[in-house]
Design goal:
Layout (H helix, E strand, L loop, with lengths): L1 H15 L16 H6 L6 E6 L4 E8 L15 E5 L19 H7 L3 E4 L10 E2 L10 H4 L4 H20 L4 E6 L1 H12 L7 E7 L11 H6 L3 H11 L3 E2 L4 H11 L6 H12 L11 H5 L6 E2 H13 L9 H8 L16 E5 L8 H11 L7 E4 L9 H4 L3 H17 L1
Parallel strand pairs: 3-4, 3-6, 6-7, 7-10, 10-11
Antiparallel strand pairs: 1-2, 2-4, 2-5, 8-9
């Protein structure tokens, strides 16, 4: 479906062409989060972090806001935001401050906002020795899933933030894959539990056996053949960001486009239908930053969760599992090790984070005495992408997140 998505935008871009003022259209800054933020009058910084295994990750920072006299101040509490699958730090600012994007909302509320970028996406497509495009090194570069993002990337970024600010703890909010890596980090590196003041899982993804998205359902039955085929063909990078895709997406999804409705319908097929909450005007800016690229192995790992009904490490097959894990099946992530104060935010119409799967996750996390709770979004049609793009996302999700952060900040 992602390939169809790309082909559709390329065809439309060629058919309808691009407006003459394309590069100057307000809100369209392809692959440049820093320009997007600075154009709104907010301060922005970029920081590069090296992981233990040599990946170079770029983080973006909004050190203070511009509304309500938030301004510069010492010892601000930090909120670290981590994006989902195929996404980037742009998720947290792309709808802009007027539409209550979480990055701006937190900065204006007096917080020091840091936004991570996982290995392999547009902003973190570098390594100290491996070239993601060189045939000799690309397979090794792309040999990771969200497991490695959890145990290498997230710790590296957290440690860098705390060392830079001089603080010992921070708040965390992740969306989709940004929640998956949170659960893994706190399970496998329990010392990081104490570094969270509060942690917010927006559209939490751990158990996935009840996903409704046709995007995942179509590929899940052919998971192992797909894994073998991609290895043989050397298809290591999944849905990379390209200029052609950005241009086609802009032409197809701008307000003047006769096929703009198809853009939203493709998103709805992946995440759940909710037309009243989607401001279609923001679609060109969103699609200038999405998809931002990932490793194919990340996608296959999620398909494995759909098939197995477990929340476990990557399945390499019985023989390789024996060599790597000492058992024929991959181990489950030990959720009982989690002691961080985590809040789950879930909704009924989320096609990637089904309520029954979230409830299974909650049943395991609730044994944690610091568990904050599971919070149901009080809107029936709220979908997976609404946590980032919904017109009323502040009302339905962000106001609660901010209130919990403030409560735990005391």
């Amino acid at each position: 479906m992602i390939k169809f998505f790309i082909l559709f935008f390329l065809i439309v871009g060629i058919t309808y062409g691009l407006p003459n003022d394309f590069s100057h259209r307000d809100g369209f800054n392809p692959l440049n989060v820093t320009e997007m933020i600075s154009s709104k009058g907010y301060p922005v910084e970029s920081h590069v972090v090296e992981t233990e295994d040599g990946y170079l990750l770029t983080m973006h920072r909004i050190p203070y806001g511009v509304a309500n006299g938030s301004g510069p101040a010492p010892n601000k509490s930090v909120v670290f935001l981590q994006h989902g699958f195929l996404s980037s730090s742009a998720d947290w600012v792309v709808i802009g401050p007027d539409n209550n994007a979480l990055g701006y909302l937190l900065a204006d509320a007096g917080y020091d906002v840091w936004m991570g970028n996982a290995r392999g996406n547009t902003w973190s497509r570098k390594h100290i020795t491996l070239d993601p495009d060189n045939p000799l090194t690309r397979q090794k570069f792309w040999n990771f899933s969200w497991h490695e993002i959890a145990i290498y990337d997230i710790p590296a970024m957290i440690d860098f933030i705390l060392n830079t600010t001089g603080l010992t703890k921070l708040h965390y909010a992740g969306h989709s894959q940004g929640t998956t890596v949170l659960f893994i980090l706190c399970s496998l590196k329990p010392e990081y539990n104490d570094k969270f003041i509060s942690a917010h899982a927006l559209a939490p993804v751990a158990y996935m056996s009840h996903v409704k998205s046709p995007f995942f359902q179509a590929f899940a039955p052919i998971n192992f053949p797909l894994s073998t085929l991609t290895t043989l063909l050397g298809v290591d990078e999944f849905a990379p960001s390209t200029t052609a895709f950005q241009l086609g997406g802009y032409a197809a999804c701008q307000d003047e486009s006769p096929v703009q409705g198809l853009c939203s319908n493709i998103l709805f097929l992946m995440s759940g239908f909710d037309p009243p909450q989607l401001n279609q005007t923001i679609l060109p800016a969103f699609l200038a930053n999405y998809p931002a690229g990932s490793a194919t192995k990340q996608f296959i790992h999620y398909l494995q969760l759909v098939n197995s009904g477990r929340f476990c490490q990557y399945d390499y097959g019985a023989v390789q599992n024996l060599l790597k894990y000492g058992s024929s099946t991959p181990p489950d992530y030990p959720l009982g090790q989690i002691t961080a104060p985590i809040a789950l935010h879930y909704s009924d119409n989320d096609w990637l984070s089904a309520v029954v799967d979230v409830m299974q996750l909650e049943s395991e996390l609730s044994n944690n005495t610091n568990f904050i709770g599971a919070f149901h979004v009080p809107y029936d049609d709220f979908n997976h992408m609404d946590y980032l793009l919904a017109i009323d996302v502040k009302l339905y999700v962000y106001d609660l997140v901010l209130s919990i952060i403030r409560y735990y900040d005391v």
